[in-house]
Amino acid sequence: MVAPDSHCSVQAVVLVGGEGTRLRPLTxxxxxxxxxxxxxxxxxxxxxxxxxxxxxxxxxxxxxLPEAITSYFGDGKWLGLRIRYVIExxxxxxxxxxxxxxxxxxxxxxVLNGDVLTALDLRAMLDYHRAxxxxxxxxxxxxxxxxxxxxxxxxxxxxxxxxxxxxxREDAPSNEINAGTYIxxxxxxxxxxxxxAVSIERETFPALIASGRGLYAYTTADYxxxxxxxxxxxxxxxxxxxGAMPLGPAPEVDGPGRExxxxxxxxxxxxxxxxxxxxxxxxxxxxxxxGDGCEIQSGATVADSLLWDGVVVEAGAELNWTIVASRARxxxxxxxxxxxxxxxxxxxxxxxxxxxxARIAAERPEATDQTV
Length: 372
Hints:
Mean pLDDT: 89
Shape: elongated
Radius of gyration: 22 Å
Oligomer: single chain
Structural class: alpha/beta
Number of strands: 29
Helix content: 10-25%
Distance between the termini: 55 Å
């Protein structure tokens, strides 16, 4: 184990500028990094991981709904961090975002993708990077099907030789994919042109390989998931409940409001936020998260679902494998189909049947007694 302060000179850049289009309507009001994981913003969990790894200087290049991020975290002191923000007027891509914060970078730095939930040991990766002595280290994981991802090919010493973007499964040269965490030396910023969008995966890293400078692979079997799709967001919570993804030094399972909930209504595992009101004859769980201030009325069933703060599920309504954003209301006797995503402040009328995989935002007129 390394000394607690051995990595304190390393900075971190967390890429939080994306619009999260695949998660809509959840991200119409909430930027993707602020989407909750067990009722805590995902970005907060990432920042706490950095603090645990001895990194307390963080830069956030933000672009989409930045006020939600800046107002929540402020200067970061309450987390024991120094947080600085650089707001992008236009999207700059992964490398362009790094070039845009160049003035704040004074040495080696970590780059974390704001989409990724992982149990990666950041301290161990930093030690590996220093041992290799290269200009960059990329975290890789092995997957059964690499075709949706960028595949890295490296030699026996871990030096990356080339990339193949989204190969056919049968043609993939490797099953090791780019997992979205990098350690970079400051000089890599010299390879990034200013003032335009630049992809680190498609431009900077191939240029680095061509230049002959060392780009190394750090391959692990840690838990890893891209949270960018609703089904992955649901899967991640199931994995947390099952223990495959530890959240950190104080993981929550039952939640702060669990003790006030009628025991007969709970089918564990569940996470219950503060100030929830659950009828004794309702059913909540399994694999269900209720944010703060939710209300589940008589005879309602909420299973395998994620409810954000202030959601009301009226009497007799049924939700299964569903995501419901803050302040939405599900009418009495409504049935919400598997995989549906309900946006902030949306109203589902009494008796409504919401089709599987539907996406419903608040601006949609309320549907009553129909299938949507």
